[in-house]
């Protein structure tokens, strides 16, 4: 790690640190004015060179990806920083898929300068243009964008890259409080096989999962849904349908808009049977994206699979007349593909309201199984609360022993938004390794295809559901005939 030359001594430093659980910085109130949040696997700090935060970071986490002199945004009002980061995908996917970074940059340039000529390198732009490249490495790119002149969020990012705006102002550090961690540990310590839990979670219906996914992807020819992209008409059809189906199960649901132009979040609640503020939350994202330049975005795996898992859990709650001791929320977020926008809005709202969230588990991509591989459950290697991840691993061993459990570097679904707000959170994913689905971020992401495994989808759904039953506590309502 090299500090930049002293000639730049007066310019603050922009630091990109590989993602660490924010607890690493638990005592870092000293950096609270210097933290600019996280995108993907990267944390951003903007530090005064003479200030105490730089010293603190150097002593606690010298593993910075990079350090750059960069003037604060005040100097360039109306601009924002935009981060692109390569996703963790299996070699089979990175070798077969075309890297669309070049096309993407050309398209951005097109918005900026329609006359890009043949052979011209994209983004040779300088100060004063709508898009300026500040850093360019093999796996990451930092742009400065003029949001008035570039509708950057409307251009789909390259298929195997994550992209999002970096906050314009410092973001508070909100580590998960130790009391909340203790509560999760307490739940974990009490988890043991419960035949009633097994009977309830085994009742998730595979034929129902099939029907539900075929509606959401448009494969059944009934819904008319072509796309569940956050800006599409299809996502609004999906939102109304999901809300109605979840309400059929006895939940109280709300469509909550979070940003104009985006489909809404769907927030469904089952009220506690006891007097408590405690809430356990399960979620998935129901928006999707397709191939570059295509309007079809069926998203059967990403994240139709997580969405129908949540719906399948809701349907089973109703069928088996489950009543929870604590409050339970089942949430379906939108805007995930544009940088966790729906879940960030909702997690922020819960934090501001002082919500008492015991834990949350996000389901993102549950159904794809590569040829020759056993059914699996992937848990996040870095982002999330290790205690919740451990709980989910143990629950899996008890109720879905058919799954091989391991870690995945597939990064950053909506659980990151909750973890950032200091809520205990984790994710369930389809593979103990990087993303291998050949239809990832592709218009061919349908449920009727090789490798789309409803058995694995149900097995992971059982894990999410059993975690909920153990964490929330429940009983079965008696027939009142
Ligand atoms: C979780 O599972 C592991 C592996 O089976 C086991 O060693 C550990 O004791 C379990 N944790 C608890 C709290 O039951
Ligand atoms: C779920 O339970 C219902 C009755 O409680 C039963 O009719 C149905 O066959 C069960 N389904 C599965 C998949 O176990
Ligand atoms: C959350 O609920 C538990 C159980 O009712 C309670 O002990 C705890 O104080 C609550 N925490 C907050 C932050 O409200
Ligand atoms: Zn996803």
UniProtKB/TrEMBL annotation:
Question: Which keywords are on file for this protein?
Answer: Hydrolase, Metal-binding, Protease, Zinc
ATP-binding found in the keyword field: no
Q: Name one GO molecular function term.
A: metal ion binding
State its cofactor. Zn(2+)
Q: State the signal peptide span.
A: none
Establish whether keyword RNA-binding is in the entry.
no
Top-level taxon: Eukaryota
The record's section on InterPro entries has:
M28_fam, Peptidase_M28
EC number(s) from the headed UniProt entry: 3.4.-.-
Peptidase M28 domain span: 265-449
The top EC class is: hydrolase
Sorted alphabetically, the Gene Ontology BP terms of this entry are:
proteolysis
Q: To which protein family does this belong?
A: Belongs to the peptidase M28 family. M28B subfamily.
The UniProt entry, under PANTHER family, shows: METALLOPEPTIDASE M28 FAMILY MEMBER (PTHR12147), PEPTIDASE M28 DOMAIN-CONTAINING PROTEIN (PTHR12147:SF26)
Give the protein's recorded name: Peptide hydrolase
This chain's source organism reads Meripilus lineatus
Q: Which taxonomic lineage does the organism of this UniProt entry have?
A: Eukaryota, Fungi, Dikarya, Basidiomycota, Agaricomycotina
